[in-house]
Amino acid sequence: MTGPAGERHSLPYAANLSILFTELPMLERAQAARAAGFTLVEYWWPFESADPSGDDVDRFARSVEQAGVQLTGLNFYAGDMAAGERGLVSWVGREAEFATSLTVALGLAERLGCRSFNALYGNRIDGVDPSEQDGLARDHLAAAAKAAEGIGAQLVLEPLSGTPAYPLKTAADAVAVLDELGLDNVRLLADLYHLAVNGDDLDTVIARHTPRTGHVQIADAPGRHQPGTGELDLEGYLEKLQAAGYAGPVGVEYKPDGSTVDSLAWLPYERRGN
């Protein structure tokens, strides 16, 4: 990278508070992000189950509201992430959990102004035909997209690394699902770290798929730490994304090497707010 972040593009940054500020309890992270200069935040699923209590949902929403930050992205419930689960969209037998989390996510989005949902596809399941999983995924994505459309929101589909059973590994894998669906509000989540680790050429992804990209996330590779700790020219890729027409937020989704606040030295304070 050359020079401080922000010299080569003007895309806004959103702090992902499921991976940043983990030194603090979940309900204190939005305030910490605001104190560090961020005005946009995103989360994975911020609850222990697909069906959190009304009080838990309210406490989470108030933590965002009281911090004075804007929620720009939210994952649907993805199962037990620590155990390796990566989404319920294609998980035959857990349809009720997916439906419940969709309802909760939509309610939070209406309250907090979020208009983007990450629908993690789900791992392949031993003993279940992949075509059955893919059929369920199409049904779930179509139903969720219709519900999201009702509040002017989109779904994004994310290729992931580090999970062999997860079938979407490249941008082309996700775009193939988008093509089958044919829905304008289901788009690609281009996580530059995951794509690079899985062998995608990021220049090619940007050139081909920026018009289909609904969200972008970053971490350096190897290591998944803050920009400058690995080999990716993240500023250069973001510059190319903006030039190709991407204008949304960039999710800051890395594992801090050191404390979160110290790890943010790559991003000038004045570039953290919108």
Keywords:
274 residues; alpha/beta; 8-stranded parallel β-barrel; 9 helices; 37% helix; isomerase; isomerase activity; HyI-like; Hydroxypyruvate isomerase family protein
- Spans where pLDDT lies below 50 across 5 or more residues: none
What is the alpha-carbon Rg in Å? 18 Å
What coarse outline follows from CA principal-axis ratios?
A: globular
* Relative helix content: 25-40%
Secondary structure: number of strands: 8
Keywords: Isomerase
GO molecular function, one term: isomerase activity
Protein name: Hydroxypyruvate isomerase family protein
Family: Belongs to the hyi family.
A few lines on this structure:
With 274 residues, the protein is α/β, with parallel strands linked by helices. Helix content is 37%, strand content 13%.
How do the strands and helices of this protein lay out in sequence?
Layout: E1 13-16, H1 26-35, E2 40-43, H2 54-67, E3 70-75, H3 95-112, E4 116-118, H4 130-149, E5 154-157, H5 171-181, E6 186-191, H6 192-197, H7 202-209, E7 213-218, H8 234-243, E8 250-252, H9 260-263
Parallel strand pairs: 1-2, 1-8, 2-3, 3-4, 4-5, 5-6, 6-7, 7-8
Helix pairs in contact: 1-2, 2-3, 3-4
Protein name: Hydroxypyruvate isomerase family protein
Family: Belongs to the hyi family.
GO molecular function: isomerase activity
